[in-house]
Input
Amino acid sequence: MLIFISDLHFVDGSAGEHNVPVDAFKIFFGDLAGTCDWLIKDGRRIDEIKLVFLGDIFDFLRTEIWFGYPEDERPWGKNEKRIEENANGIFDTIIRKNQDTFDLLKGDLKEEFGLPVEPERVYIPGNHDRLCSKYRSLREKVCHWLKMPLQGDTLFSHFFENIDYSVFARHGHEYDKFNYEGSISYRYEDYMRVPIGDPITTELVAKLPWKIMNRDEIKQLPQKEQAALKRNFQEIENVRPFSAIIEWLLYQVKKNLTLKEIIEDAVDETIKEFNQLEFVKRWYGHHDKWYDFWDEADKIQSVLFLLEKFKIFPSEKLMPLFEGVKDRFARDDLLEAAPKEYSHLDSRIRYLVYGHTHEPLQIPLRVIEGPDGPKEYVYLNSGTWRTRYLKSKEGLGFIGWKNLTYLIFYRKEERGIDFPAFETWTGALKTV
Output
């Protein structure tokens, strides 16, 4: 039995209380035990359980802690010793904030939940936990808290492949040009290159609420109003699709018209500081190509340009421009990349698994007829366990709910059929 979960995004809490509670994991493992019991009663054997954490488990980017350090000591800086020290501090806080959960994950799951065997944990880094792969000190901590064998100088793999289950998996950020800066050779060095998505998450998404809440005018508001304002702006990275973030900001401004100028000033200040970062200036210089009218630099600069115009133009005049920009971000690059993945894979691989997008999917890719019957090829996305806010079909509004998705793959003998099987489970809880 092979299970995938991804995009848990455990955080230190400084940029919002977004952590998945331990009860969600108890429900998950309880359901898993029930599935095993059902198979065993049906005469099947469960000789192994592999639990793959498919990236973005630890989030080093959604935190305000980096604002207390100079740029050179942040993940896009060059002072590696200090970056490692700072990242270790954030990791330790993440563990403390989620102590019950990690005590559970590093414990005896077989005994706790009545599983037939102890699950083997596998960890694949994503883009938000890139630093876990970079520094040995963090690799050792990951192994400790996920109950994995210490690997010494051995690096984490960035993909998982198992022929028995007919599965190939990776986090998927490799196909997101804003969150992967490496080449298609996918070497360790490629994954260690800092993508522009790192400072976007921290220096824009996490910093904007921080800027707003540190304004003197905001500090004079009643505590209840401050808490609501802070919570709403800290949810910005949970907005889906990501291209709807501009509309989320407009939505928040409309909900807080008395604070409109304060919010607009904070947006301007945040964007100005972002564009002044040495890393960002270097990135623009490398990616802004005169021969490509709509390159990656143009896409980011166009969004920031429109955000800076909040104060000059009413939102009604800007909306057509926002819609045009949003449409250019709407493409699912991971889905487009999936069919091409098979070109370098073992011919027995049928199933591709990615995470990253937070969108649980099962997409049929192709059917190939053969002497032994048709072979079906499927792309699956492992979604997220985080809250997601989705834009309403009508008007300028958003509705949120909590999510939980996991994928299970079976060997032929585990289900008594002549091909590896899978099942997916996605739940939603409306308590936000």
In short: The chain has 17 helices and twelve strands. The chain has a mean pLDDT of 92. The first strand starts at residue 2 and ends at 5.
